[in-house]
Amino acid sequence: MKIICIGRNYAKHISELGNEKPTSPLFFLKPDSAILPKKMPFFIPSFTKEVHYEVEVLVKINKVGKHISPKFAHKYYDEIGLGIDFTARDIQEKAKEKGHPWEQAKAFDGSAVIGEFYKKQDFEDLQGLNFSLSKNSELVQVGNTSHMLWSIDALIAYVSQFFTLKKGDVLFTGTPAGVGKVKEDDVLKGVLEGNQAFEIKIK
């Protein structure tokens, strides 16, 4: 399986990190070894001093597709979830300064939290999904998919131009504003339309 992550898909998040707004979707990959095992805590890696949480709506691909038309993209998924793209921000900033790839900051073991998935039919409007992340019971990120620069279907169509999507692939659709640092003993909880999709302890 592939984990496909979209960067800079929410305008306020772009602003908070001082990044340039892209003219087309920006994406990168995480390996399957990045998936944090269910019910396991997230251990802060020794190679970074600043790991940030980034809550994101997820889409699970349900069949093989290549060069998918936007009008048919909805046929390639039937489950929506919520997760976290953990980012070693200090390493990412150094890489960006030098024009280097981000993999060390984004694709390390345990950096992809994949919470519960729900049938997309359970939601009235996929372009108006409310989601949030709390840290130690304090709300830190609040998002709505209507604020995406590119919708779920547009992202699927775009990514499929470059490589084949396969059953089981997971698309991380980008994070809203409010990202921040985690520390030992923090507890992160993600909620999608009133459903608690995950709870992660930081070690």
What does this protein structure show overall?
The protein has a 6-stranded mixed β-sheet, with helices on one face. The two termini are 27 Å apart. 14% of the residues lie in helices and 34% in strands. By secondary structure, it is α+β, with helices and mostly antiparallel strands. It has helices spanning 11-16, 89-98, 103-106, 152-159, and strands spanning 3-7, 26-30, 51-53, 55-61, 77-85, 87-88, 112-119, 130-135, 138-144, 170-172, 180-181, 187-192, 195-201. The protein has one domain (3-201): Fumarylacetoacetate hydrolase, domain 2.
Give a short overview.
The chain has helices at 11-16, 89-98, 103-106, 152-159, and strands spanning 3-7, 26-30, 51-53, 55-61, 77-85, 87-88, 112-119, 130-135, 138-144, 170-172, 180-181, 187-192, 195-201.
- CATH fold call: Fumarylacetoacetate hydrolase, domain 2
Stretches where pLDDT is under 50 for at least 5 consecutive residues are none
- The strand order across the widest sheet is 2-1-10-4-5-7
The percent range for strand residues is 25-35%
- In angstroms, what separates the terminal alpha carbons? 27 Å
Number of distinct helices = 4
CATH architecture verdict: Alpha-Beta Complex
Q: What is the percent of helical residues?
A: 10-25%
Shape: globular
The biggest beta sheet is recorded as: 6 strands, mixed
Based on helices, strands and strand pairing, what is the structural class?
alpha+beta
By DSSP, the count of extended strands is 13
Radius of gyration: 16 Å
- CATH class equals Alpha Beta
| Number of domain units | 1
- What is the succession of H and E elements? EHEEEEEHHEEEHEEEE
